[in-house]
Amino acid sequence: MHGSAAYPDPVKRLHLLEVPSGTAALQVVPSLRAALAAGPAVLPYAAGTRPPAVPGEAGDLPEGLAVVVGTSGSTGNPKLAMLTSAALAASATATHERLGGPGQWLLPMPAHHVAGLQVLVRSLVAGTTPVAVDLADGFTTQAFAEASRALDGERCYTSLVPTQLVRLLADEDGSEALRRFDAVLLGGAASPPALLARAAEAGVRVTTTYGMSETAGGCVYDGHPLDCTRVRVDAEDRLHLGGTTLAVGYLGRPDLTAAAFTHDADGTRWFATDDVGHQDGDGRWHVDGRLDDLVNTGGLKVAPRLVEEALVEHLPEVAECAVVGVPDPEWGEAVAAALVLADGAAAPTLEEVRDGVREVLPGHALPRRVAVVDTLPLRGPGKPDRSTLRALLASGS
Question: Across the beta sheet with 318-328, what order do the strands follow?
Answer without folding.
Answer: 318-328, 332-341, 369-372
